[in-house]
Amino acid sequence: MRFYRLSFAVLVMLLVVFTSALVLHAQDDLTIGFAQTGSESGWRTAFTEAMQAEAEAQGINLIFSDGQQKQENQIAALRSFIAQGVDAIILAPLVETGWDEVLQEAQDAEIPVFIIDRNVTADPSLYVTRIASDFVYEGALAGAWLATATADRTECNIVELYGTVGSSPAIDRATGFANVIALFPNLHLVASQSGDFTRTGGKEVMESFLNSMDPSTICAVFGHNDDMLIGAIEAIKEAGLDPGDDILTVSVDAIPDIFKAMMDGDANATVLLNPEMGIQAYAAVKAYLAGETLPPLIPVPSAMYFPDTAAEEYAARTGS
Ligand code: AHR
Questions:
Q1: Is the pTM of this model over 0.90?
Q2: What CATH number belongs to 2-133+275-289?
Q3: Which backbone phi and psi does 156 adopt, to 5 degrees?
Q4: Distance CA 42, CA 49 (A)
Q5: Strands 248-253 and 269-272: what pairing?
């Protein structure tokens, strides 16, 4: 009897060791498909590079797909990842809607999907979790900073450089910003137009604002990202005005170029969107594959930066 009890205990131990070895082996050979939106902004490029560098550091085989700003390309990438039988898919979705069908296909193939950065409106049971910042909060931070910076002004007309239409950062940042400025009777959003998160788009939209209204009546510009704001700075200068002074600026991302603009006196504030989300994303994939249950959202914290630390932040990001 004692012999059988001992043998049973040994068997259980062997099973545990064998199962752990299997999980560890599976994680050693991890293949992840990553469907990126494109390379529309400096932040997006930094995010892609950080995802690739972290995958390499962790020995993950990352299959990267650049959606080139087209949802159909991203859907095709997901279908290709499914056909290749990857261990997991990380999707950075271009827009919020239109994902249900392909997410269902991944689920049918028993491939877990992790949403990163932008959000989707799909049924949450179709993906494991989302690793992301709170875009509403980012917009609210931008609005709160502007309210403080203009506290001594009786009127402040604001123009908004809107991100990609249908994308969650554009929708949510606009909402967070509007919610806060509604609390301040001196702040008025007088125009909003999409610059598609690109530098050229931001410049063109700002030019159209400056041409369609008396430029001296524009008190501030809110850019849904730094790249559009940098394009707008060029347009403001070409119109003979002084960005950061005649027209206050606030935007989101905290890329090196916005710190350079702050150092030059052309930009006033930016909200951080951390591009290093890969660390959390890969940890989530590994935890899920090891059998852990994950929360529906894995938050990525935000912060705000101003000219007083611009030189230091620029140096930290560029090494110069
Ligand atoms: O989804 C995040 C946004 O996408 C970034 O703020 C912007 O730069 C990018 O294009």
A1: yes
A2: 3.40.50.2300
A3: -145, 110
A4: 11
A5: parallel
Q: Where in the chain is the domain with CATH 3.40.50.2300?
A: 2-133+275-289, 135-273+306-318
Q: What is the CATH number of domain 135-273+306-318?
A: 3.40.50.2300
For 44-54, how does the pLDDT look when each residue is reduced to its tens digit (9 = 90+)?
A: 999 999 999 99
Mean pLDDT, to the nearest integer, of 281-307? 98
Name the residue of 36, 44, 196, 228 whose CB sits within 8 Å of the most ligand 1 atoms, as the mutation to test its pocket.
Answer: 44
Query: Residue 88 is inside which H or E element, if any?
Result: strand 88-91
Q: Which of 116, 120, 69, 127 is nearest to 96 (CA)?
A: 120
CB 118 less than 6 A from any atom of ligand 1: yes
Tens digit of pLDDT for each residue in 90-117? 999 999 999 999 999 999 999 999 999 9
Nearest CA residue ID for atom 3, ligand 1: 169
Cα separation of the two ends of the chain:
73
Q: What is the C-alpha separation between 192 and 237, in angstroms, rounded?
A: 20
Q: Which residues of 259-277 are buried (b: 16+ CB within 10 A; e: fewer)?
A: bbbbeeebbbbbbbbbbeb
